[in-house]
Amino acid sequence: MLRYENNPIVKPGDVQPSLKELKVVCAFNAGAVKFKNQILLLLRVAETAKDAEADYITFPIIEHTNEGPKVKLKSIKKGSPDLDDSDPRMLIYQGQPYLTTLSHLRLARSDDGRQFSVNPTPAMLPQADLEAFGLEDPRITHIDGKYYITHTAVSPAGIATALASTDDFKNFGRHGLIFAPENRDVVIFPEKIEGKYMAIHRPYPKHIGTPGMWLGRSEDLLHWGEYQKIMDVREDSWDCVRIGAGAVPLRTPKGWLEIYHGVDKDNRYCLGAVLLDGDNPSKILARSKEPILTPEAPYELKGLLGNVVFTCGVVELKDELLIYYGAADSVTALAITTVEEIINSLEPI
Question: What is the pLDDT of residue 129?
C-alpha cells in the first residue's frame, strides 16, 4: 500500500461553501466510480456556521418552510448545564442530539485519478425530515447502465440508509430509505447473484449482539430481506469493536474483494480486506489478519476526529487499485496498491 505523495487530494479549502453563511470544514468519505473516461468522487462535504458569537455554538440544520426545506442556523450558549459538547462531531442539548456540521454530497472530477477539481455547487442536498442532519458517506454501484448511490441519512430519528440513482451525475432520483435506523455502511454488489441484488450492511445492536457485517437480498433494490450475518468483530484485534463495509465489492477471478473498516478499543479506524466466494458471498474465503492501512500520516492522525482512515470507494485503473479514503474525518486521501497484492496479504479462513 502506497500513500499518494501529494495527499490529501481534496481539502476543505478546495470546496466552495454551498451558502454564504457557511464554511466547509470537512471534505471526505467519497464514493468513487469511473464515468466517461474520468474518475468521479462523490464527496461528503461537511459545513458549519461561518460566523458565530464567541459564547455560542452555532451550527446548521434543515428546517421545513413554506418554500421547502431550508438551512437554518441554531445557536446554543456554551457552558449551559443542559449541554454536552464533549464529542467534536455532535452535541446533546436538553436531551436532543445535534450534529455540529451539516453534510451534503459534492462531485469532484479527475482525468488521472489523482488530481481532482471540485464542482462549485452541491450534487445532492439534504431534503426530507429523515435527512435533517445531513447526507453522509456515499457508495456508488454501477448496474446495467445506471449508477445507484447508497448514503447515510441522519436525523433526530436516527442514522439510516437511503438510495439515490443517476445515469448522468447531473440529475438524481431519490428513492427514500432502504434500511431503517440504525443501519449504515451499505454497499450494493454490482451484479445480481442467483437472480437477486445483494448488499452488505451493518445494523448496530443496542442490547444484544455485536456490530458486524450482514448480507441482504432484494428483488428491486428497494425492499430487502433474507438477512445473514456474514462477518463479525474479532476479540483483541484491530477490528474488535465494530466493522463495516467500505467500498463496493470488486469481482476478481478469486471472488469478491471487499475493503472494510475496523475499529479497535482505542477508537482507531483502520482498513482491512475480506475475500468472499464469487457465487455465494455469505462464505468468507480469506480475511486480513492485520490492517492493510492504519492511521500514520499527520493528516490521518489529526482532524475533526483523529486516528481515522475510512474508505467509501475504490477504482481499478489499468493495473492499479486506487483506494480513496477519508482521513481524520477531515480530508480525502489516496492509497495505491493492486488487487493481487491485497488478496495475497489475506489469511485463508
Answer: 87
